[in-house]
Amino acid sequence: METIGQDLRYALRQLRKSPGFTVVAVLTLALGIGANTAIFSVVNAVLLKPLTYKNADSLVMVWQQNPHRGWSQNNVSGANFLDWKKQNHVFTDIAAFESNSFNLSGGAKPEEVAGERVTTNLFSVLEVQPWRGRLFLPEEERQDKAAVIASYALWQQHFGGDTALIGKHILVNGKSYPVVGILPATFDDAYAMSFTSHTQFWISGMEPFPETREFHQYRAIARLKPEVTLAQAQAEMDTIAGRLEQQYPESKGWGVALVKLHDQVVEYTRPALLILLGAVGLVLLIACANVANLLLVRASGREKETAIRVALGASRSQLVRQFLVESILLAMIGATAGLALAAWGSGILVRLSPPDTPRIEGAGIGAFVLLFTFVVALGTGIVFGLAPALGSSKPDVHESLKESGRSSAGSRRGRKLRDVLVICEFGLALALLVGAGLMIKALAHLHGVDIGFEPNNLLSVKVPLEGPQYEDPRSQVQFFGRLLGRIEAIPGVEAATISRGVPMNGWAGWSFVTADNPNPPAGEVPDANYVVIGPRYFQTLQVSLRGGRRFADFDTASSQPVAIVSESLAQKYWHGQDPIGKRLKASGDANDKTQPWLTVVGVAGNVRTEGQYAPFLPEIYVPYTQYPWALWPRHILVRTTGDPLAIVPQIRGEVAALDKDVPVSEITTMEEIVAGPVQQGQTITWLLGGFASLALVLAAVGIYSVISYAVSQRTHEIGVRMALGATHVNVAGLVVKRGLILTSIGVAMGALGAFGIARLLAELPFEVRWLLLFDVHPADPLIFAMVSAILVAVALLASFVPARRAAKVDPMVALRYE
Fold first, then answer.
1. Per-residue pLDDT tens over the stretch 654-691
2. CB neighbours (10 Å) of residue 656?
3. What is the pLDDT of residues 787-816, one digit of tens each?
């Protein structure tokens, strides 16, 4: 320990003697280590920390899948869920739940609250105990016996922490339910992180389940038996799915997919975070190469000192240890400064992340992150210190002790190593810049995507009508008719309409059959996005009409049932035919008496229902003035001449004037909705671009330092050349040529590495590849060419300053050099 202490004191003295070198090295390492620590703090919070449920590793999501239709994780039909529950031998239990929004009334004001209908065993599957009260009883599975369990947040915020809430009845959608339990506060966040929905309460009672197997509305979660692996469970569920497929024709093509709950939570976040972690890892390697170059230059200046120590009896191991102690000390100082950057950077990452990023709020500098930083700093110190240590610990004592050491073997070895390090820096920088370039091009493509409607000056407001007084569709039609009239009378409103959902906010798939093909083969029943709309829907959204007519006031419950279909649906099912006058039914069964045959009266332009990343999907529009509906309308869409949010108070007032118990929620502009799907990709792009820019700067500093040092070492040679007739241009060209040679080799090596990364990106799952590289080929030649040109230009600029200095060398002074 005493020897290490001496080495530390000596290292500190050496660093104090070279403040310029120390500051540059520490800043370089602080940037590299700080960036890695910041990204790792997010990786740790999102990917590495286990879920907070008991024995969370045994929890699995159970999905239905239909590879023929391209659905890998689809909701579950109630009939299939019941069969899985009866026939499996791999789960301790399996539960189902259905997310929705509910009107919670009876308080100071009506409120729409996120809730779920669940099977009574959900909380026993999750192994969660109530904070107060009890869990659901088996007999509460029946809807006429249903009860409510409240979240801790709902108990606090809506009921004011009323200790007597247990046993009381609350009004949900106009119906009374007893509150039997309150869950712990810690469960609120755990559940929201697992299912990206801030559920406020749970209602028991899923029975009776729909008998049809084509109606997929539930999610299912199960707990594996202790001795059962995921692969074993998947094999048994595949067997059960095959058996059901044989028994029920409508189950043809449907299988089962099991996904560990933790993997489900991080499914789309993991690839992005690993890409960012890899990117900052490359930045750190470039930083290491830069500091190693600085140490090699510094070691060249200390050759005589090292030779004297060897002559006085110092062993090679002592010299290596001294150099490594110095490099590790530098790394630790850099890591300490990097921690401050990381604390700031992790906070920025949390703010930049999309709102539904799971567990991102847990990012920060904790004990495990500190351990990671220490290990990275130690490894970094060894990596960038080892080459200079080994190279400088075996000097040519006789040559180094001469008055002139400029031609020493150590210097030649050091020059070759510095060249290799610069080549590596440029290769790594090219790989990073190619990745950033691909994503920037993808982002540009996304912003140019035709979404099918005009989002500017468009407001979306949810007005859910729930309760016994609105169970009759006629009462809803009357309410919305009056409300739309009142809203259109507000100054600044151009048009208003109603819709089942909001464009870009997801798919509400519904089976349908056409009169041309009323009995499609089992498992091949088509489906489309089902949208209930008002007469002025297409004018309000500015969706083009390709043929036929829009809905009109005369499309009422007593007139012929009609529909408008999207251009994509018309082309897919009536290709080459005129779709106007064709008939379809919003049901998978042509004999279904609950749904009428609809006559197509118009063809609308395509709208990207699932966001910019998704293709145009088939859609069926039906007028809200005709019913029965398969799905109820809930959203009011308003186009304004100015800021759409300015009329929100007036809309609230008009709703309250019609019914004070109807809540107004999910108030947002369509511009915000359109921006939502691309937010994660945009965040990743800018972060990767920032890391790539940092890598480019470090690579430029690296080549500058190498060329500058080479010029100082070759001053005598340059003087001789100029004395023999070389011009300033010849000398400058000689210097720049060396920089270009190093850059060209680095670019060539980096291109090979980037092509390897491109092949890796091309093999990512479609959903992830589409998110990161929307409509961009991973090996885009234009991006590779542009990045290579940028690197060559930077190398020219970095070489220009030392080249200019070399060109100004005075031959008389140079010939007296050293």
1. 999 999 888 898 899 999 888 877 777 777 778 888 88
2. 15
3. 888 888 888 887 877 777 766 766 665 555
DSSP code per residue over 356-425: T-TTGGG-S--HHHHHHHHHHHHHHHHHHHHHHHHHHSS--HHHHTSS--TT-HHHHHHHHHHHHHHHHH
Report the range out of 229-238, 359-368, 438-447 with the highest average pLDDT. 229-238
Residue 250, both tokens: 């409508």
H helices, E strands: number in the chain? 25, 24
Sort 566 into a burial class: Cβ within 10 Å, 0-12 / 13-18 / 19+.
Answer: buried
Query: In the structure encoding, which two tokens stand for residue 662, read together?
Result: 């109807």
In three-state secondary structure terms, 579 is coil
Q: What is the pLDDT of residues 11-69, one digit of tens each?
A: 788 788 878 778 888 888 899 999 999 989 988 888 888 888 899 999 999 999 988 77
- pLDDT tens digits, residue range 742-790? 888 888 888 887 777 777 766 666 555 555 666 677 778 888 888 888 8
What is the SS3 assignment for 520?
Answer: coil
Is the CB of residue 364 less than 8 Å from the CB of residue 346? yes
- Which residues are 188's β-sheet partners? none
The answer to whether the beta carbons of residues 340 and 35 sit under 8 Å apart is no
Alpha carbons 401 and 645: distance in angstroms, whole number: 79
Phi-psi region of 70 (alpha: psi -120 to 50; beta: other; left: phi over 0): left
Classify 765 as helix, strand or coil: coil
- Eight-class DSSP state of 226: T
Pairing of strands 201-204, 132-133: unpaired
Chain centroid, CA 217 distance in Å = 26
Q: Give 257's DSSP letter.
A: E
